[in-house]
Amino acid sequence: MRKSQSNTRNMLLATLAVALITAVAPVAQAQDKTFTMKLSTATINDTQHEWFKRFAALVEKDSGGRIKAEIYPASQLGAIPRQIEGMQFG
Q1: Do the beta carbons of residue 86 and residue 76 sit within 8 Å?
Q2: How many CA atoms, within 13 angstroms, populate the side-chain half-sphere of residue 10?
Q3: Largest CB tally within 10 Å, which of 37, 78, 79, 86?
Q4: Is 65 helix (H, G, I), strand (E, B) or coil?
């Protein structure tokens, strides 16, 4: 596997892990609340962005609308290191 593919794969897995942790942890505490899951990618209109669109639709469908997924492409939430810090520090 090429290094760029490996980096993209690792970034996708890390983003997915963070998204799942932030979406699942609160659900266990309060079943009747609604939640917003923010999905961010550094790129736009590529396979990762397309995957987020499909993933968001499935999450909303499977949660019965309790989890609202928002997609922020093209580093709209900041550079990747700033996004990680934002997750770490709340």
Answers
A1: no
A2: 8
A3: 37
A4: coil
CA torsion through residues 78, 15, 42, 68, sign: negative
Read off the amino acid at residue 29: Q
For the record, the structure tokens of 88 come out as 């770490």
pLDDT along the chain (90 residues), means of 10: 68 72 62 89 93 96 95 94 89
Q: Of how many residues is the chain composed? A: 90
- Domain range enclosing 83: 3-89
Q: How far apart are CA 13 and CA 65, in angstroms?
A: 24
Crossing angle of the two packed helices 3-29 and 47-62, in degrees rounded to 10: 20
Residue 87 · residue 18 · CB < 8 Å: yes
Q: CA triplet 55, 89, 7: central angle to 5 degrees?
A: 50
Q: What is the pLDDT of residue 87?
A: 86
The domain total for the chain is 1
